[in-house]
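The data are quoted verbatim for completeness:
=====
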Amino acid sequence: MNNQNFGIINISRIKQFFGVAISFNIIIDNVPMGEISSDMNLSFTVPYGHHNVTLKKVNHSVPIEIDLSESQRNVDIVCKAGWGALVARPKLVSVNYR
């Protein structure tokens, strides 16, 4: 694959005792990409341009809009478990381009 027109979305979840057994769904541009658990890192190669990333569990979603380009090839998204009514839910910690 020619990486000249592609960037990387890195998603990390902070290690926590709370919510350790609960995984969050990762959806990029309406496509389910997998699940992330406590103390886990996942990377996805995507073409430059606008992307919608969603972290989801049950009825709670965290939408994140990102734009990758020649000057912003990679983005690091950090999340953790937050308090929900019945189960842990995703909470955004940071989004950093590099």
Q: What stands out?
A: The first strand starts at residue 6 and ends at 13.
